[in-house]
Amino acid sequence: MKIILNFIGIVAVILGVLGIFLPLLPTTPFLLLASACFARASPRMHNWLRTNRVFGKYLRDYENGAGIPLRGKVWILIFMWGSMSYSIWRTDHLWVRLLIVAIGACVTLYLTRFVPTMRTPPAPADGE
C-alpha cells in the first residue's frame, strides 16, 4: 500500500507543480492529495513537502487548521471561476455546462464555509 500511496503522491506533486504554470490545472487539491498520501506512506516525503520553500507554509497552515489567507481564497476563486467560465464557453453540451457550474458551486461553498480563513495579526503601530 505504501508504494501505491507514494506513487499517487509523486504524481500529485507533479500535477500540482504543473498547475502553477497551467491555468486550467489546479494546484492546491493535488498538493493536498500528495500531502495526505505522504503522511501515510513516507514521513520523509511528507516532511519535504511541508518544508518546501514555495508551498510548504500553505500546506502547514492548512494541515494545522489555521486555514487559508483571505487573499489566497480570493485568488483561488478568481482563477477557478475564470478557467471554468472558459470551459463553459468552449463546450456545446448543456449537461457539461451544468456539471461545471455544480462543481464550481460546491468548491466555492466548501472554500467559503468550511475552510477557515486565516486571520493575520494587526500591523504594529508606528513607534513600536
UniProtKB/TrEMBL annotation:
The keyword Transmembrane helix appears for this protein: yes
Membrane listed as a keyword: yes
UniProt superkingdom: Bacteria
Keywords: Membrane, Transmembrane, Transmembrane helix
Pfam families: DUF454
TM stretches of this protein: 7-24, 70-88, 94-112
Matches recorded under InterPro entries: DUF454
Signal peptide from the UniProt entry: none
GO cellular component, one term: plasma membrane
The name this protein goes by in its record: DUF454 family protein
Species this protein is from: Duganella radicis
Lineage summary: Bacteria, Pseudomonadati, Pseudomonadota, Betaproteobacteria, Burkholderiales
